[in-house]
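(Protein data)
===
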Amino acid sequence: MAITIIFLGPLRDIAGEPEREVNAPLDWPGLLAAVGPHVAEQLRQDRVNIACGGKVLHDKTALSAEDGDEVALLPPVSGG
């Protein structure tokens, strides 16, 4: 029973790894605890989004991931 957290962009650098497996189920407080304080600080910002099961959450604090889900942490995109 595992969930894969995927760190993208600069969040990958902060986390020091591309992904991490955690036990299911996973909610918002559990996610913040699982990623550590530096990544959690970034997640609390409005500009960072979360996708669960391939769908971007409109309210990331409503995260409810189950066994087998992937939770992608999406930093803001820049470029031209």
Summary: The mean pLDDT is 95. The longest strand covers residues 2-7. The beta strands are 2-7, 19-23, 26-27, 49-52, 55-56, 64-65, 70-74.
